[in-house]
C-alpha cells in the first residue's frame, strides 16, 4: 500500500511517499480503508525527533494519528463493528500510521463516524476531541459556572475545547491573534485576549482551570490567573512524574521527567495549584460520547485546509507554520 514514511528523524525533513506492507489485523483489530487523515502538531514533533525518547518508533515507520474510513475486515474477536461501517479513530501510541491507504486499529480505539460529517470532517476530530475531553471532562472535571482559560483558541485543540467548555457551562476565556478574535468569539469564547495587544496575566484572575498548549513562559504566567485550588493542565509539557509512571518509563527517564517539571511543579505547589501534563490516549468509548455531541450539533469541526494525499508534505509544512485555524486534513478518496 502507499504511505508517507519517516525514514530518519530530522527537523523539517520531508516524508517519503512509498510502498509499505498491507496491515494484517489481529483478532481484536479492525482493518480500515482510509479515506481521510487529520494532521496534528504531534506529527511534526515526531517527524522532527522531539518525542523519540517517549515514543521510540523505529524508522522506517508510517506517520499519522487521525483517520476516517470504511471497515474492510474484522478480527475474530471483534463484536462492535462490521464490514462496511464508516469509522474514525486516533489509533493508540505504538500503532499509529494513518498517512496510508489502510490501517489495522484495535477495536477499543475505534468509533462509528458521526453521520453528520464528511470523511474529511470526521478525520479532523479524534485527537483534538480526545485531548479536550480528557483535559476538561476527565482531568479538570469542569463544572457549570466555573471559569476556564484555553490558550491558542484558534488552533485544533483550542477550537474543540472552546465548544466543549461552553457545552459544560463554563465561562471561557481564550488567547489568540488579532485576525482570529471574531473567529473564536463565534465558537463561543466569552472573553478573548488578543495577545498582540494585551497580556492575559494582567487581565484575568480567579480562574478554575487553564488549558495550556504554548511555551514555557506562557505556562508560568498562567499560574497567576488561577485561584488557589485551580488546575493548570498542559498538553505541551513539561512532562511530570505521574505521566512517566503511567507510561511505564524506566527509572532514568522518570528522573528526567521529574527534573524537567520541577520548577513549574514547585511554583504551582506554593500557590496551591495543581499542575499536570496531559498526553492524550486513544479511547473509542470517549470518542463515542464525542460523536453524540457532534451529531447533536453541539460541536462542529473546524478545518483550515484540505490537501490531496500526494501533497501531504505540503500539508505538514502548512501546519508547521503555525497559522492554521482549526485542522489541516489530507484526503485519499
Automatic annotation (TrEMBL):
Cleaved signal peptide residues: none
Example of a GO MF term: oxidoreductase activity
Location of the Enoyl reductase (ER) domain: 12-330
PROSITE patterns, per database record: QOR_ZETA_CRYSTAL
Xref: Gene3D superfamilies: Medium-chain alcohol dehydrogenases, catalytic domain, NAD(P)-binding Rossmann-like Domain
Keywords: Oxidoreductase
UniProt protein name: NADPH:quinone reductase-like Zn-dependent oxidoreductase
Organism field: Novispirillum itersonii (Aquaspirillum itersonii)
Amino acid at each position: 500500500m502507499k504511505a508517507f514514511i519517516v525514514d530518519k528523524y530530522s527537523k523539517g525533513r520531508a516524508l517519503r511517499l512509498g510502498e509499505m506492507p498491507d496491515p494484517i489485523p489481529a483478532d481484536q483489530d479492525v482493518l480500515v480503508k482510509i479515506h481521510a487523515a487529520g494532521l496534528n502538531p504531534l506529527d511534526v514533533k515526531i517527524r522532527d525527533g522531539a518525542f523519540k525518547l517517549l515514543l521510540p518508533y523505529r524508522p522506517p515507520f508510517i506517520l499519522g494519528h487521525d483517520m476516517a474510513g470504511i471497515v474492510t475486515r474484522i478480527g475474530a474477536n471483534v463484536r462492535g463493528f462490521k464490514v462496511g461501517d464508516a469509522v474514525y479513530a486516533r489509533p493508540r501510541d505504538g500503532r499509529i500510521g494513518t498517512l496510508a491507504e489502510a490501517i489495522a486499529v484495535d477495536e477499543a480505539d475505534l468509533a462509528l463516524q458521526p453521520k453528520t460529517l464528511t470523511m474529511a470532517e470526521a478525520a479532523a476530530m479524534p485527537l483534538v476531541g480526545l485531548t479536550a475531553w480528557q483535559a476538561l471532562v476527565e482531568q479538570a472535571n469542569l463544572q457549570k459556572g466555573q471559569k476556564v482559560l484555553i490558550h491558542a483558541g484558534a488552533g485544533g485543540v483550542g477550537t474543540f475545547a472552546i465548544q466543549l467548555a461552553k457545552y459544560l457551562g463554563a465561562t471561557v476565556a481564550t488567547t489568540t491573534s488579532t485576525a482570529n478574535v471574531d473567529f473564536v468569539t463565534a465558537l463561543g469564547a466569552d472573553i478573548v485576549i488578543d495577545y498582540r495587544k494585551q497580556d492575559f496575566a494582567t487581565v484575568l484572575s480567579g480562574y478554575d482551570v487553564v488549558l495550556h498548549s504554548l511555551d514555557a513562559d506562557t505556562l508560568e504566567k498562567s499560574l497567576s490567573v488561577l485561584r488557589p485550588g485551580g488546575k493548570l493542565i498542559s498538553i505541551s509539557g513539561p512532562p511530570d512524574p505521574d505521566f512517566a509512571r503511567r507510561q511505564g518509563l524506566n527509572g532514568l527517564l522518570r528522573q528526567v521527567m521529574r527534573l524537567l517539571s520541577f520548577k513549574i511543579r514547585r511554583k504551582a505547589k506554593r500557590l496551591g495549584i495543581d499542575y499536570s501534563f496531559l498526553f492524550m490516549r486513544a479511547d473509542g468509548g470517549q470518542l463515542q460520547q464525542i460523536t453524540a455531541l457532534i451529531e447533536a450539533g453541539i460541536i462542529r469541526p473546524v478545518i483550515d485546509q484540505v490537501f490531496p494525499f500526494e501533497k501531504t508534505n505540503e500539508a505538514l509544512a502548512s501546519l508547521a507554520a503555525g497559522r492554521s485555524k482549526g485542522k489541516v486534513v489530507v484526503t485519499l478518496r
